[in-house]
Amino acid sequence: MRLLVVEDEKRIADFLGRGLESAGYAVDVASTGLSAVDHVHSTEYDLVILDLGLPDIDGLQVLEKVRNRKTVPPILILSARDSVDDRVRGLEQGADDYLVKPFAFVELLARVRVLLRRGQPTPEKLQVGDLTLDCIRRKVARANESIELAPKEFSILEYMMRNRGRPLSRTMIVEHVWDMDYDGLTNIVDVYIRHLRSKIDDKWTLKLIHTVRGIGYMLDLPEPSAAGAAPISELH
Ligand code: CA
Fold it and tell me: In terms of pLDDT, which residue wins out, 89 or 76?
């Protein structure tokens, strides 16, 4: 997998490059909008991470210049601008996701993985341990015992199972399950997770939903995983 990081701030570009490389990706870095356009035209990337504030043309113009290509890689926008306008414009111009600075590297990595997986066929049935979820029939069971979930609970569980083993922030969960991302809405995630736990975890010894301190939640089989203990680096 080859990624392009478009970021003019060297400190951030280096940090992202190193982090993504240690996660197993090949990474090129472009520090201007025009060189980013050149890179995208000359190399097949699996994903582009695009900062909006660039010294020559801005990220939205880069999007405009690359979106007419036959195959456009998924684009994740990074920006300090958190206005709804920029976000909507970026998404309208073909970006696939949007992350506002400052962000935790684990969150960036989780989103990168989701975007890279998007092109691949999604399974109709998900399974983690004895928990199964049928995406088509919208049925959930644990140890073959059917579990009734409200629609939002189902969506959260499906999202968590698709991202098994990855810490998901409340913001990520809100953005994938609700249409709007009001700040205040992130608290509602805790409420829904409580409901989910009471339905899929409480009466079983093996807990599948884990709280990841400082980030949010993760679904996986309980094991001495290092995922929750990974250091979080904040970028400003
Ligand atoms: Ca910048």
Answer: 76
